[in-house]
Write a structure and sequence with these properties.
It is built from six helices and three strands. It is mainly alpha-helical.
């Protein structure tokens, strides 16, 4: 999965119910060579926790809800770590990508500002950061 696609998947999952997100991750595992192992408490030889590996992000959890939340957390951490060394053009594309999660967009903006940008770009990034923050406050 490319750098731009993981944040979009995370944003999509975060907007879904846990049940729908679990179904989407199950489909992602099947279609993209991942794995999903569900616990079977009735079988003492079976796994006792649910495990999921999709797009190189691994998570486990006692319930489907915990599994989904843990996978999203791991995938978000992976995406953020990839952004740390990303070229400026990719960070700018991430900051302006409405399909990416707000947290990833804000992180991309912060990294661009830390690297130093021209005055016009700085103003544009600050305005974008303000709009995203306002949307987050409105949702909360």
């Amino acid at each position: 999965m490319c750098l731009d696609a993981l944040p979009a998947l995370i944003a999509t999952l975060e907007a879904m119910s846990i049940e729908d997100a679990f179904e989407r991750l199950t489909t992602e595992a099947i279609e993209n060579g991942g794995s999903l192992v569900l616990a079977n408490p009735a079988n003492s030889w079976s796994a006792h926790t649910n495990t999921l590996s999709v797009h190189q992000a691994f998570a486990d959890g006692d319930t489907e809800e915990t599994l989904v939340r843990n996978w999203i957390r791991t995938a978000r951490t992976m995406a953020l770590s990839r952004l740390a060394g990303a070229p400026t053009q990719i960070l700018m594309a991430m900051a302006e990508n409405d399909d990416a999660s707000d947290g990833l967009r804000l992180d991309a903006i912060d990294r661009l500002i830390e690297r130093g940008v021209g005055p016009a770009t700085y103003d544009r990034l600050c305005n974008l950061r303000h709009l995203i923050a306002a949307e987050l406050e409105h949702v909360a």
